Amino acid sequence: MGFGAMRITGPGILGWPDDRENALRVLRRAVELGVNLIDTADSYGPEVSELLIAEALHPYPDGLVIATKGGLVRSASGAWTRDGRPEHLREACEASLRRLRLDRIELYQLHAVDRNVPFEESVGELARLREEGKIRHLGLSNVSVELLRRAQELVPVVSVQNRYSLVDREADGVLDECEREGIMFLPWYPLAVGDLGQSQGALGRIARARGATPAQVALAWLLARSPVVVPIPGTASLTHLEENVAALELELTDDERSALT
Question: Active site residue: 44, 108, 164, 189, which one?
């Protein structure tokens, strides 16, 4: 189980959180609970999420992977703009290194494909950053099977982060490709922004029968979907964090999984 550090920022994923100390406690508690992958991006805040991670956890414990992303720019008005230009990705990566207080980022991901920039140019720059030792592993986000294959012709890809959940399975084909290739799949919006926390239908029935929350059942379904799936639910709540991690102990039966299919 990973932790998505998008929602530790301010309202609308902009600025500093209203309760900064709570955000720091959530990050530290995630590591205490055994989370060893924290996913963030330079656009969360922007910059705020990375700064909070460094404040809470640096020097980082052995085995903790801080994964960040570049290529999606957030303006003060809240607009998201794609920028996959090689010069921007280099600047973004080097700025993340400084904010996270790292010499090398263990997993750096292309946040979004910029249709105005040749895909191979964006990936090629990340490959050069990898060769220079600024990135250890390279990942992609929001890509198709075809783009994943094109990237792999240039550089080893170790992870794909696409939107995916019990109620949103559009990325099934990409997930299947990741399983075939042994690539980690990080589903974002794994709880459909809280919608899967509601006690409805088969999800609610299974949750009540197992003494679990619907969100825990939804995460257990993701974990059972494929061995390459690593959910990264995000929250600013200590209670929800602990509930999410506890989903690791919930193993669904074949009948339960069929009811959710």
Answer: 44
Three-state secondary-structure class, residue 87: helix
Domain at 3-161, CATH class: alpha beta
Torsion over CA: 238, 239, 243, 244 (sign): negative
Distances (CA, A) of 106 to 37, 195, 244: 10, 32, 24
Q: What is the pLDDT of residue 69?
A: 98
pTM of the model: 0.95
**pLDDT tens figures, 99-138:** 999 999 999 999 999 999 999 999 999 999 999 999 999 9
Return the bridge partners of 35, or none.
none
Give residue 117's Cα distance to chain centre: 24
- The angle that helices 119-131 and 145-152 make with each other, rounded to 10 degrees, is 40
Active site residue 44: yes
Please report the sign of the dihedral spanned by the C-alpha atoms of residue 136, residue 245, residue 234, residue 28. Answer: negative
Instruction: Give tens-digit pLDDT for 151-189.
Output: 999 999 999 999 999 999 999 999 999 999 999 999 999
DSSP-assigned beta bridge partners for residue 37: 65
| C-alpha to C-alpha distance for 30 and 259, rounded to whole angstroms | 31
